[in-house]
Amino acid sequence: MKHKSNYLNGAEGLVKILDEYEVKYIFGLCGDTSLPFYDALYRLNHSIKHILTRDERSASYMADAYARVTGKVGICEGPSGGGATYIIPGVVEANESSIGVISITSDVPTTSIGHFPLTELKQKQLFKPLTKWNEILNNSKTLGSNIRRAFKESTSGRPGACHLSFPFDIQKAEISEKDIWANKRYTKFPADPIKPNSKKIDLILKSILKAKNPIIICGGAIKNSFAEKELQKLAEKLNIVVATSVTGKGTLGDNHPNSLGVVGSNGGSIYTREVLKKSDLVIFIGCRAGSVTTEKWQYPNSNSKIIHIDNDPKVIGANYKTYISLVADAKETLIALNKKIKKNNFGGDKVVKETKKKKFFEFNNLCRINKGLIKPERIVKDINEIMPDNSYIVVDPGTPCPYFAAYYNFKKSGRYFVTNRAHGALGYALPASIGVKIGQPKNTVLSIMGDGSFGFAVGELETAKRLNLNIIFIVISNSVYGWIKAGQKSSFNKRYYSVDFSRTNHAKVASSYGIKSWTVKNHRDLTKILNKALECKEPCLIDIICQPLEQAKAPVSEWIA
Ligand SMILES: Cc1ncc(C[n+]2csc(CCOP(=O)(O)OP(=O)(O)O)c2C)c(N)n1
Ligand SMILES: [Mg+2]
């Protein structure tokens, strides 16, 4: 193919269009088929910073977490073949959590497909079921429109993840300058929010007023659509109980009188369950009503009427017979409800107060114990007392998720609790905390990991050190895949099999990365070390030797989700 010397190539086009979309960060890892793209990033003038990661999985988790805390589309990239297969976890997590992410992987030249080039992979087929929308950029003439489509798909309707596969030859092919533009409406999510049907709003209002013990259960949608204030207004007007899924934690501040906290099998309690059992009307807002939030669809039970509000029609009616369904944006719906609703008093504050008293009684007792191994309860309490109100808490599955979901008190509402509840895959919190810190550099960020998760993600300590991100990494060290051992204890008569592993000195590992670190074994040292970590102006790690999860009184009613 003959080229003019100063034409714009596909890779340059991608960089320019991303820049037009005000992309500030790309999280990714290099590869030979991505070289034209890297070269374009090197040569062109733009405002994008490339964050080099040590695993494509981390890149996608960073993009997901960055998007969660900023509302901007998270961008991750990796090379063909292994890069594309390794990038999948964060793409899936974002897609199922309605988080706007675009992942881009380079690909072998279109001309070599079918000839067994190294890294050949059916990327289109691979990503199709995992994303909201995906495409191969195999034609330089449609490059711009496909990139714009990815931004639109990932931000509008139900936001989600998109994937673009970018073959090597198209990265080098000529494209037209005229194709370099962005539809800025789709730089953030949710874009084009769906307005609620006003008749349905009236119906919802009527049935709320008829109820005796109504309860609202929020998923992630209220935080995602920045509607916390509207929800608070509604909760106060009605004095209604507001509960959340794990993802929805922080929708109302935990100290708000109407905030019941997390319900379900992971972070709920027998006391929060009681509230659900007594409710005659449950209003799900932006919540899938999945197995964890509903304790495998037991609570709410058939005594409660269900109103379901979600911007994804697939969610509604999937699990419950729905009395009123509304496909609409959470914020638009709350605004419409607030406009029409009259003051009422369902006594929600009283219910919340009594429930929390019972729930925290045992917790507080366990926090006072200074003997034996440090209890998870104590870790939550001490962190809660020391960290500033606007700290981001990024947690992994295992011990961190149920404990922080149940007992951490966020004084402010907002997106401060970050966790991966679509798949709950191990190894999220370390890379995700890097995405959070890059998105919200002024805030304190804690990454709270199980030792199993640490093993998945340890390589990214180098990234945190290289970028000097003063994240506080906390490893809950119990030398076991504790959650699974707890499952063997509760459901398989303590037939413990292949779940224990040996103790790693996580503090020493961190020091090898040049990261300041401490090991804590004694209860009384915990606050002292946490204070030191808070003062630290660089990344640091606390290795806490902790009571194993299967021996703890975890706020978990079901280990097999
Ligand atoms: C990628 C992945 N593999 C397996 C699991 C199943 N799983 C859920 S929790 C858990 C154990 C977690 O161990 P650890 O990180 O040490 O935390 P702990 O439970 O000990 O606190 C496992 C293996 C998972 N969630 N993700
Ligand atoms: Mg463990």
Per-chain topology:
Layout: E1 8-9, H1 10-20, E2 25-28, H2 35-43, E3 49-52, H3 56-70, E4 74-78, H4 82-86, H5 88-96, E5 101-107, H6 123-127, E6 133-136, H7 143-155, E7 161-167, H8 168-172, E8 174-175, H9 198-210, E9 214-218, H10 221-224, H11 228-238, E10 241-244, E11 259-262, H12 270-278, E12 281-285, E13 305-310, E14 324-327, H13 330-340, H14 348-368, H15 376-386, E15 392-395, H16 400-407, E16 417-419, H17 429-439, E17 445-450, H18 451-457, H19 460-466, E18 472-477, H20 482-491, H21 506-512, E19 516-520, H22 526-535, E20 540-545
Parallel strand pairs: 2-3, 2-4, 4-5, 5-7, 6-7, 9-10, 9-12, 10-11, 12-13, 13-14, 15-16, 15-17, 17-18, 18-20, 19-20
Antiparallel strand pairs: 1-8
Helix pairs in contact: 1-2, 1-7, 3-5, 3-17, 9-13, 11-13, 12-14, 14-15, 15-16, 15-22
The structure holds thiamine diphosphate and magnesium ion.
